[in-house]
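We examine the record.
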Amino acid sequence: MMFPKILKWTGIVLLGLTVLLLIVFGIFFYVYGTHVNKQYAVDVRPIAIPHDSASIAAGAHLYAIKGCGDCHGADLGGKVFLNDPAIGLLAGANLTGGQGGRPAGYTDQDWLKALRHGLGTDNKTLKLMPSYESAKLSDKDVAALIAFCKAQPVVNRTLPPMKTGPVGKVLAVLGKLPLFPAEMIDHSYQQPGTVPVAVTKEYGEYLSVSCTGCHNPKFTGGDSPIPGGKKVADITSKGHLGKWTAQEFITALRTGSTPEGLKLENKDMPWSMTAQYSDEELQALFLYLKSL
């Protein structure tokens, strides 16, 4: 008689746990939906977008050092960069005017809305687009980046729609996956017209915004923003960087080889991207990080 009772109570417990899990997931899915469907009313400050070759070349450099190609591809035609049933299917959009790319009538204001506010044409948050970094770009730099993107040849590539899996939704709601960039931006921020390019801490601070996505806004590292990724290093003077020379810093960011003898994997530290920074940019970045 004891064994049937044990089976009965085991079944009740399992059923209770299943119902509880369904309720918890239901709550997460509901909250996820509120984030995705929230509409924003923002004031997109218009700026002139140039068309000259010098601006387009400057934009090409920014596209490279900001890692835009990691998601949108070297040809700006977009690509799938994660396809995991639990986390989701994540893809960078086709930024060209080809089939599957920008819709007809996509304006300079739409570009600015995406880059500075993390919003699509429907005024809802884009997914996973690191607009919280490009939101801080000066007028001159963001205009050059847009000029470069608009000048590229069309690519006919239709990508599958982005989907967020159950684990991805939970991570996003918990703030462990930066899926909602519009929520991470100060939409009233006034960007500078231009930032002087010089080997100064001030210019290094301006460039360092690109490091915050992984190393966090205080640059102290910690958990990776990529699910399952390695711990992220502290890049303040309290970390290894505090013992490096400027040349050792430049070598590490250009080759992935550190003074401690480590060979950094590009998937953990994208040195193939930082290798494209100029000497002046890397020296300025080093000055700022070393001062922290």
